[in-house]
Amino acid sequence: MNFLAHIYLSGENDLIKIGNFMADGIRGKQFEHFPEDVQKGILLHRFIDTYTDSHDIFRQSTKRLHDKYHHYAGVIVDILYDHYLAKNWTKYSDEKLESFINRFYRSLHENYEILTEKTQDLMPYMIQRNWLLSYQTVDGIHNILTQMDRRSKNTSKMQFASEELKEFYAEFEEEFTLFFEDMQQQAKQKLLTL
Questions:
Q1: What share of the chain is helix, strand, coil (3-state, %, to 5)?
Q2: What is the pLDDT averaged over residues 173-191?
Q3: Would you say residue 1 has pLDDT above 80?
Q4: Could you tell me the CA-to-CA distances from 6 to 9, 78, 80, 82, 176 in Å, in that order?
Q5: Sign (positive/negative) of CA torsion 63, 65, 71, 75?
Q6: Considering the chain, what percentage of its residues have pLDDT values greater than 70?
Q7: Using one digit for the tens of pLDDT, what is the confidence trace for 113-168?
């Protein structure tokens, strides 16, 4: 799962959303230095990642990409799955996607002092280019994959994965739909235990 799904699966609490959003850069017990709800978001993020990586349907999606993209296949599928969430947003939420995203961006600004330095650095680019909304289109996904490829000094070749997205569009969408139905239930259950 990538940014949009992590935020969506956090429920309505802004601090849990923020923790879930910025968790990738927080190692080990560093999470204990954050407010309690942010900690919950970080722990939820870790649960989602572990559950996702071991899920048969997610693995089925990554297998399609593994020969060409190797260990980047999982990162690519995370991003592709965010595309299907954004594209089919009305199936998962009564709130407009633009409104959901703008509310999240606002909460980042309002809670700026508790964000990690990495998140503070990322925020202006993310908001200016409206990454989360750009997930709705194949072109938007291609741009995100290209940016990620640049960060790997073009060794990942992720920029080319939009070709597989087009070629196996229906298959990835079906896998996402089945997987996400399960993931929503698992995330809700996990939130109750945090």
A1: 80, 0, 20
A2: 98
A3: no
A4: 5, 10, 14, 9, 14
A5: negative
A6: 100
A7: 999 999 999 999 999 999 999 999 999 999 999 998 888 888 889 999 999 999 99
Residues 6+ apart with CB under 8 A from 48: 1, 5, 6, 9, 20, 183, 186, 187, 190
Residue matched to tokens 């280019």: 129
Q: Exposure pattern of 8-36 as b/e (b: 16+ CB <10 Å)?
A: bbbbebbbbbbbbbbbbebeeeebeebee
What lies within 8 Å, CB to CB, of 23 at 6+ separation is 6, 31, 41, 42, 45, 46
Backbone angles phi and psi of 186, in degrees to 5? -65, -40
DSSP-assigned states of every residue in 127-183: HHTTHHHHTTSHHHHHHHHHHHHHHTTT-S-GGGHHHHHHHTHHHHHHHHHHHHHHH
Question: Looking at per-residue confidence, does 39 or 151 come out higher?
Answer: 39
- Rounded Cα distance between 58 and 34, Å, is 31
Residue 149 exposure: Cα atoms within 13 Å on the Cβ side: 18
